[in-house]
User: Fold this.
Amino acid sequence: MLWVSEHGGTHMDAPSHVDPGGKTVDQVSLERLMGTAVVIDLSLSAHLDPDTQLQIPDITGWEAWNGQIQDNSILAVNTGWGRYWPNATRILGTPNHSDPSAFHYPGVHPNAASWLVENRPQVVAIAVDTPSVDFGQNKNYSVHRIFAKAGVPVFQNVANLDQLPPSGCKILAIPMKIEGGSGAPLRIFAILHEHREKQRDHFHLTTDLRYCHSASADISAGSQFLPDKRCLSVAVSICFFIFTQGLITCMGVN
Assistant:
C-alpha cells in the first residue's frame, strides 16, 4: 500500500480544501490548469522581511510595466523561497516545525487576494514558491478561503520561479487526479520563448531524473519535509512532453 500526501511537496490545493462546497481536484477544469504566466518578483522584500505579503500595488506595478493581466493567466509570486528547499527550518522560518504559530514565510495579503478576485477574474490560478499562499503568520487561512470561494486553485511549493520572465511564457499544471481530493501532488511546467533556449542548454530536473538536454526542467517540489510525519509524500514523474516550439521548464522541486 502506498500512502500519498495530498498537500506535500509541490502540490495543488483545490477549492474544497477550505470550502466544503468547493470543487475537488477531479472537478477542477483544465482551463484553470493552464495559462499565461504573470510572474511578480517579491524576492528582495522577502529577503529583508520573511513576513512580506503580495500587495495590490505590487500587482498594479507589474501591470504598469507589462500591461493589464491577460485572460486565462496564472499569477505566480516569486519570493525567492525556492532556494531554501529542502531546508525545512529555512522554509518555515523556525526550527520548531510542529508549531504553526512560529512560522515565518511570505505569502499573499488578503486585500490583494480580494482585489484579484473582484478586479482580475481572468486570473485562473495562483502559484507560490512557499508552503502556503497565506503568509506564515496568517492562521485563519483567509487567502485560501478567498480564492477557494472564487473557485481559484492554488499551486504551492513551486520551484524555479526565479527562472521565469515577468511575462511571455505559459504555465501548465498537471495534478494527480484524485477523486474527491482536496489537493494533489503536482507536476507543473513553464513553456518559454525560443530565444531563452540559447541562454542555457539544460535545467536541473528532479533528482531522480538528473539532467535533460535543453528540453525541460522540473519545478515540482518533492516531500523531504512534511509537518505531518505520518504521511509519506511521493513525487511521481507522470510523463514528459516534447514541444517543437519553445523550451519547457518543469516547476517543481524534489
Notes: The domain at 11-250 is CATH 3.50.30.50 (Glucose Oxidase; domain 1). Residues 200-218, 222-249 have pLDDT under 50 and may be disordered. The longest helix spans residues 56-66.
